[in-house]
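Exam revision sheet. Question 4 asks you to relate a sequence to its structure. Input first:
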Amino acid sequence: MLNAQKKLIEKNSEQIEARQKVQDQAEAKLKQSEIYKKFHSVLKGEEEEKEEEKEEEEVKINNTDWQTLNQAIDETYNQFSQRLQELYPITDIELKVCLLLKINLSPLQIATIATRSKQAISSIRKRLYKKFFNEEGSTE
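Answer key, C-alpha cells:
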C-alpha cells in the first residue's frame, strides 16, 4: 500500500511539473508577443524622450491594443480576465490595471500607460485588494 501511495505521489508530482513547464512556455510565448513588446517599448520610448528633453507625447495605446493584450493574457493564464470578472465586479480601468500588473509593469509605468497619476493607480490597487480579499491592505 505504501508503494502504491509513493507511486501516486510521484505521478502527481510529474503532472504538476508538466503543468508548470507548459505554463512557463506560455509565459515565454507571451513575453515574445508583439503586444507584450509594444506595451514595454512604449515606456522605453518615453524614457528616451525624457532623457533627450523632447516634448512629451501621449502613450499610443488604442482599444485594439487593450483587446489584444487581454486576449493574450487570457490565453496564457487560463481565461484570467474572464474568471476575474465572473468573481468580482470590476471597472474597465481596474481590469486594465490587472492586465498591466500581469505583464510585470510597475505602478509608475501603469500610471503612464493608463494616463492616470501614480496615486490614482495606488488607490485602484488598494480598492482591488479590498474587493478580492475583503480586508484593507497596502498597494503592495
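Marking note for examiners. Residues 49-59 have pLDDT under 50 and may be disordered.
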